[in-house]
């Protein structure tokens, strides 16, 4: 007697449908995260979108290895991601001592944060709301759907990095007003700010994808992403506090 196929096998989505579903999911995610949701709900939105992305992967028949989350990727991810994270941390520490580097971390989003808000952003908001979703979606599910597992790794890298750049259109609209280094580089105009934000995050997407390949999974880029975002916020907070102490009357 022939073996019955499961319901999942009968209803498996083609990869093009999966890409379309991810595009719709990420569009809804960036609008809700940057416009609709209150700040405290941001991690909830990111976690919900992560679960939805994993559901898309499952419906398309992707395995944990396909999306870079298999158990065999852990050791390589820790090795590659740990080395890159150490280098990024060294830059952050240097910024605390070198005035030229300090200017890049003069971010007003950290200027008025207390210790509680610092911990909220570094330990919850950024890891859950940003890093988890972006690494699962852009370094895990999307590359698998766009060719990484079918012999088209370059196409997968470019498409996923391109979508990563577009994902940052709305955050880029706010960045120039928050970060003085960005404002000095691109000015106040919306179009230059968006173009700079999209192009820079496209390049970052390429670099994170290279880490995903080198580390054989999403763990390596996730560690680097966490060190860059959470570590960068921490350094900005320290830079702002130090500047405030220098300006305070003796």
Textual characterization of the structure:
The protein has 250 residues and is mainly α. The longest helix has 34 residues, at 115-148. The termini are far apart. Helix content is 76%, strand content 0%. The protein has eleven helices and no strands.
Average of the residue pLDDT scores: 87
Q: How can the largest sheet be summarized?
A: none
As a percent range, the share of strand residues is: under 5%
> Topology as H/E string?
HHHHHHHHHHH
Helix content: over 70%
**Poorly predicted ranges (pLDDT <50, ≥5 residues)?**
1-9
Oligomer: single chain
Which structural category do the helix and sheet elements fall into? mainly alpha
Span from first to last CA? 88 Å
Find the count of extended strands (DSSP E, 2+ residues).
0
Radius of gyration: 20 Å
Number of helices: 11
What general form does the structure show? globular
Give the tags:
250 residues; mainly alpha; disordered N terminus
Provide a short characterization of the protein structure.
By secondary structure, the chain is an all-alpha fold.
Give the topology.
Blueprint: H1 7-10, H2 15-36, H3 42-59, H4 74-95, H5 99-102, H6 115-148, H7 153-167, H8 169-178, H9 180-186, H10 190-214, H11 219-247
Helix pairs in contact: 2-3, 2-6, 3-6, 4-11, 6-7, 6-11, 7-10, 8-9, 8-10, 10-11
């Amino acid at each position: 007697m022939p073996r019955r196929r499961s319901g999942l096998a009968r209803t498996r989505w083609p990869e093009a449908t999966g890409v379309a579903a991810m595009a719709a999911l990420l569009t809804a995610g960036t609008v809700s995260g940057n416009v609709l949701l209150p700040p405290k709900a941001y991690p909830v939105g990111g976690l919900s979108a992560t679960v939805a992305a994993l559901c898309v992967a499952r419906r398309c028949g992707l395995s944990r290895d396909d999306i870079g989350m298999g158990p065999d990727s852990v050791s390589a991810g820790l090795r590659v991601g740990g080395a890159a994270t150490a280098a990024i941390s060294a830059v952050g520490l240097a910024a605390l001592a070198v005035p030229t580097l300090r200017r890049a971390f003069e971010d007003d989003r950290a200027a008025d944060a207390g210790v509680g808000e610092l911990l909220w952003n570094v330990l919850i908001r950024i890891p859950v709301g940003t890093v988890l979703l972006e690494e699962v979606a852009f370094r895990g599910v999307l590359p698998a759907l766009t060719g990484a597992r079918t012999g088209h790794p370059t196409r997968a890298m470019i498409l996923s990095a391109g979508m990563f750049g577009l994902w940052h259109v709305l955050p880029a609209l706010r960045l120039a007003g928050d970060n003085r280094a960005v404002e000095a580089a691109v000015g106040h105009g919306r179009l230059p700010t968006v173009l700079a934000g999209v192009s820079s995050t496209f390049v970052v997407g390429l670099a994170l994808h290279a880490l995903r390949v080198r580390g054989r999974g999403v763990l390596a880029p996730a560690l680097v992403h966490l060190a860059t975002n959470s570590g960068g916020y921490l350094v900005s907070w320290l830079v702002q506090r130090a500047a405030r102490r220098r300006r305070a009357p003796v």
